[in-house]
Write a structure and sequence with these properties.
Order of helices and strands: EEEHEEE
Radius of gyration: 15 Å
Helix content: under 10%
Oligomer: single chain
Largest sheet: 6 strands, antiparallel, barrel
Strand content: 35-45%
């Protein structure tokens, strides 16, 4: 499976990381991300790691924490960068729509 957890969806591949709100600064990096629905909070939680990127590290040093992560399929999610790891990449995590496809789930109507 993903290496993150047995009940998680995952994505491995290239992503675009948007580092500013007007989308002028965007970089492509490799990423490994996974996520799951959290029944306690009622939202979708995702997390991952970005490959080393001088642009992402520089943005982090300038105080940028919130980024948009997009996959080539058109999915995107807003995440928060964390301190660089030992290899120079950055962990990223978010709640809500993930930047990768997840299975569609139909919720049956509850009986009154």
């Amino acid at each position: 499976m993903s290496g993150f957890g047995d009940d998680e969806e995952e994505y491995k591949g290239t992503v675009t990381v948007v580092l500013d709100t007007d989308e002028r600064t965007a970089v492509e990096v490799r990423a490994h991300m996974a996520g799951h629905f959290s029944p306690l909070t009622g939202d979708y939680r995702w997390r991952g790691r970005l490959s080393p990127s001088p642009e992402v590290t520089e943005a982090f040093r300038r105080g940028i924490r919130t980024v948009v992560v997009r996959t080539p399929d058109g999915f995107e999610g807003t995440g928060v960068l964390d301190e660089p790891n030992l290899w120079g990449g950055h962990p990223v995590n978010g709640a809500g729509s993930p930047p990768f496809a997840v299975p569609s789930i139909e919720i049956d109507e509850l009986d009154d």
